[in-house]
Each structure stands twice: as structure tokens, then as C-alpha cells.
Write a structure and sequence with these properties.
globular; DUF4397 domain-containing protein; 5-stranded mixed sheet; DUF4397
């Protein structure tokens, strides 16, 4: 049985005294200065901006609603509505923001007083997904919006695929192809992500409870056709036993294109 090397990390909020930092391992300016001005508060010319190297790289942020028992939600940034009536399993387009600190609030759709998340997010340049994981009922997992750093760089001659385990009642999983002959992801638990690269082509992803030999019974299959040079995220969502769960949301893989 062949195994493809994967990179795995736990998905956790990166806490700071003032809120949640999306900085990860990436650099960012801490001087608090605004683009386009100098120390005297005067506007800078194009030449001055070029000389000072102050051109900013924008941040890209999206929201993924992965909490199966949560209602549709609205998303606010600094008090302004940026996404409305976002349903379960929806992954928004990227929103472009200048690096800085923003107050992000998530509420039940149409009810700004029903706040499920509110905090300050310090955003650096790069790409990030704010993913709502867990359950409001906390039947299996605590509800916790989580920040993922998205690697949208060019994978070259391969396709890059990331697995995010967001199924509250599912154990750790293996993902294989070819009737188990090739292991793409090994022993990925709830709240973890793993990344691998594969040649472009047609695949049937087989999701199995994790075992030492990666041969657990297949609980779901998904056909996908990643393209060379593209980047994808496969979110494992829903319940393995929806009849016993607080919401009728069967287990599935939600595959989205990152780049």
C-alpha cells in the first residue's frame, strides 16, 4: 500500500491579549502607520512610497460555515455587514482587506442580537479561512470559530489538496484512493488539517475511520478531478450518525477551490 507524504497541523485560534491574531508565521508591520502618509502626516508621492517600500500586500479572508446544528449566519466586519444569510456548508469568496485589526462578529441570520462569535482579528498579508467548527449544542464538540492559514501558492506540476476534519461525531479518518491502495491522508482527527500534493486527474476519495493499516470500512466516497497547478480544500462535514445527532446533516466531503 502506497502512502503519499502529508503535512498536518492542529487548527487552533492564535490568541493574543487583544483578540485573535491571524499572523501565523508571517511577517507584518507593527508601527501602526497608515499607507500613503509620512511622519508629518503629509501625503507621499509615488516615488516616496516606492523609496520607502510601503506598498501593502492585501490580505484575503473568507468564512466557512461548518457547524451542522447552527443556523444561517450573517458576518460583520467593523460593524458593516459583509456576508448575509450564509448557510451550513457554504464557503464564501475571499474578501480583500488591508492588513490591520478588525472586529469580526457572526450572528444568526437576520438577528444581530444573536451573537455566536465576536472578537478582534489582527490580519496580516496572506490568505485565511475563518471556519465555524463544532456544535452550538456541544453534543460532540465545542463550538469554536477557528482560523486556518491557506497556502495558495503554485503547486507546480501537481495539485495541492488539504483535508480539514470538521465532522463532530466522526473519529480520526484516513482518506485513500484506488480501493485503499494509496493513502492520501492518515489519521486526521477533528480539528486537524493535513495537506498533500497529487498529479492532476480523476480520483474517488475514500473516507475511512483511521486504522493502523488504513483499511477501515469506507464511510463516504467523493469523486473529484483536481487540476494541475490548482489548490483545493476538502472539508469533512456532517455526522456519521445523523439520526442520533442534533441536526440532520449526513457525513460528506465539501471540496472547494482555493486557487
Amino acid at each position: 500500500m502506497a502512502k503519499i507524504h502529508t503535512r498536518r497541523r492542529a487548527l487552533t485560534l492564535i490568541g493574543t491579549a487583544g483578540g485573535i491574531a491571524l499572523a501565523g508565521c508571517m511577517g507584518g508591520s507593527d508601527d501602526g502607520s497608515e499607507m500613503g502618509g509620512n511622519e508629518s502626516g503629509e501625503e507621499m508621492s509615488d516615488d516616496e512610497m516606492a523609496d520607502n517600500g510601503s506598498d501593502e500586500t492585501m490580505a484575503n479572508v473568507r468564512v466557512a460555515h461548518l457547524s451542522p446544528d447552527a443556523p444561517n449566519v450573517d458576518v460583520y466586519v467593523d460593524g458593516d455587514t459583509v456576508l448575509e444569510d450564509v448557510p451550513y456548508r457554504d464557503v464564501s469568496d475571499y474578501l480583500e482587506l488591508a492588513p490591520g485589526t478588525y472586529t469580526v462578529m457572526i450572528t444568526a441570520a437576520g438577528d444581530p442580537d444573536a451573537v455566536v462569535f465576536e472578537d478582534d482579528l489582527e490580519i496580516t498579508d496572506g490568505a485565511f479561512t475563518i471556519a465555524a467548527l463544532g456544535e452550538l449544542s456541544e453534543t460532540n464538540q465545542l463550538f469554536a470559530p477557528t482560523v486556518l492559514e491557506d497556502d495558495r501558492s503554485d503547486p507546480g506540476d501537481n495539485a495541492r489538496v488539504r483535508l480539514v476534519h470538521a465532522s463532530p461525531d466522526a473519529p480520526a479518518v484516513d482518506v485513500t484512493v484506488g480501493d485503499g491502495e494509496t493513502v492520501l491522508f492518515d489519521d486526521v482527527a477533528f480539528g486537524e488539517a493535513a495537506t498533500t500534493e497529487v498529479p492532476g486527474g480523476d480520483y474517488t476519495l475514500e473516507v475511512r475511520p483511521a486504522t493502523e493499516t488504513n483499511d477501515g470500512d469506507v464511510v463516504a466516497t467523493v469523486d473529484t478531478a483536481p487540476e494541475t497547478g490548482s489548490v483545493y480544500t476538502a472539508f469533512a462535514v456532517g455526522y456519521l450518525e445523523p439520526d442520533m445527532a442534533p441536526a440532520d446533516a449526513p457525513f460528506d466531503l465539501e471540496v472547494v477551490t482555493d486557487a
